[in-house]
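To fix ideas, we reproduce below one chain and its tokenised fold.
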Amino acid sequence: MSKGSDAVHAMAQAQQMVYGMVLRQSLLLSFIENFRMLAIAFLAVIPLMFLMKKVKARKGEVAIE
């Protein structure tokens, strides 16, 4: 008796394995792309910090946070 599956079942298993690998790779690539876009957005916002004016509380008044 031979071990394993017949040719049709083995082909289906191989296709499922390839599909699983492609799915994992696509998930990883989408995570990397989202991370890259967020990094660019945060880096673009950093110069805006230096353009903002500090607001100082006036004497005698209570600053509400």
User: Anything to note?
Assistant: Residues 59 and 65 are 16 Å apart (CA to CA).
